[in-house]
Amino acid sequence: MNYNIVFKLTKDTIIISQIKKDVNQENLNNTNIIDVKDLKFSIDYIKENFELVANFLNVIIIKKNIENVQIMNMDIALLILDLVNTWEHINKVIFKPDKSLTLDIVLKLLDNNYLKTIECYDINNYLLDRLVMNKNIKVKTRHKYDLESEFMKTNLLSSYSEIFYKKMIIITKDFDDNDIRDFQNFIALNNNLKTIKIVKYSNEILTLVIDEIIKNKRSNIKIEITEKNNELNVIFNTVNYIKKKYHKYFDKNNIKFKLTYSKEYKKNNFFKQINFKLFTSILVFVVLVSMISVSIDTYIQYKDQNKIDEELSEIDNILDRFEIVSDIDNNVNDINIIDKGTLITTKPKSPSVYYTNFDGVFKTLLDKNKDTVGWLEVKNTKIKYPVVQADVNSYYSGRDFNKKKNKMGWIFMDYRNNPTNLDKNTIIYGHNIKSGIMFGTIKYIFNSSWYKKDSNRLITFNTPTKNMKWEIFSIYQIDVTEDYLQNEFTSDDEFMKFIDMIKARSIAKFDVDINKDSKILTLSTCGKTSEVRQVVHAVLIEE
Fold this sequence. Notes:
Layout: E1 3-9, E2 13-20, E3 38-42, H1 43-48, H2 50-64, E4 68-71, H3 77-84, E5 92-95, E6 100-101, H4 103-110, E7 117-120, E8 122-123, H5 125-135, E9 138-141, H6 150-154, H7 160-165, E10 168-171, H8 177-189, E11 195-198, H9 203-215, E12 221-226, H10 232-245, H11 247-253, E13 255-260, H12 263-268, H13 274-321, E14 323-325, E15 335-339, E16 342-346, E17 354-356, H14 358-368, E18 372-378, E19 384-388, H15 394-397, E20 412-413, E21 425-429, H16 448-451, E22 458-462, E23 469-479, H17 492-505, E24 520-526, E25 532-542
Parallel strand pairs: 2-4, 4-5, 5-7, 6-8, 7-9, 10-11, 11-12, 12-13, 21-24
Antiparallel strand pairs: 1-2, 1-3, 14-17, 15-16, 18-19, 18-22, 20-21, 22-23, 23-25, 24-25
Helix pairs in contact: 3-4, 4-5, 13-14
């Protein structure tokens, strides 16, 4: 008797478990008996028909608006995560067994570009760091620790995830040995601490706090000390001494002190604070003016974003009109779904089954904007746009596809490039927008879990006269320079020296052949600041 896998659907979750029960293999493709709320497949069947099963379940996930996956058995976790990594609508995975996540499971999770949250029993702190740093995934653990010290109880630190994500702690009494031990462990494990509030002050407590901050190389922390029931002179003297002693470290790592006063103290020292309050009022006025200015900018950005969203929706509708079923792959099995008693037969949506008639797409796009020169698409990013070109690069840096003023801009080709007979280096620009539009997701390409997948590195860039595939061979970040923006070359030697230069900059080595007759594509955007550029180079491999 073989193990089989059961997929149960709830309101927003697909629950996946393992059972030791025979499944009639002949019934697997018999749609008359399939119950989409309780699907069963053998492990061998899933492995042998992986793409079919993944696409079949993906259709159900999209139709039922499912966002969560719950894995009931760790033995099947690796196989299930292979499926989950193909479902872009799933943003949360829940591991129900009371077992720690293993390295193999975490490596699978690092291959996923869609997950936002993971719930599990426990996880090694090194593996948790990798998930947070590489993928910015929120990890919640269920394992509770015994709280021996008053410090842990006061700050409700009963699980590893609570320790790891805690942003503010409070110290309410002098520490005993248990408190000291747990505080030291907390500082070593925590990765998000911003504020340490000391209610019960002593020089010993402050010295311990500073020592642990420096020992663990922590930064961006505010130490807030309460005035009430504490000796101000002692606090002032000690804090001033410590700030002078460690001023280099504090300045470099943004360690700050704040003294909070009680109402009684403020009342007793009212006249002393009048001048200070006057200064504060002026400062508040300046801040308010700045906030109003920021609010206006935020509103403009909101309106610009809405305009872009409307245009992208129109473009998606154009693509849908010209997306047709290919007759190339007749061996792909139909997907049969029972919906409210009706049998619906369709084919799995995959690159091998569907393609887009770009002749029709370009005709429609050119009717909307005669500046349209191409179509750019990068897998597993949000980069999927028509490309435009103007007489100067600054034009579409501040206008959308409909030529309306918009700070988001659009994806545009360098004005020097020939969009019909492509130059040796065709250059495409776009703003790096935080919300993810334009080139806002080009950062995905710099993640090893992205660029190590061969299929991700194939870029589609088509023109009205050519359908083309390009393969990435160099990715890097660099301070602002124009040396990679050369589009024409006086000789083959000059071109090959240029190729050697941009390949040497790449953060990863790709086994891609480039010769003197090659043509390349360059994508360029800002990095985290306007003084940095993120650059992607790809070579034409199919036309």
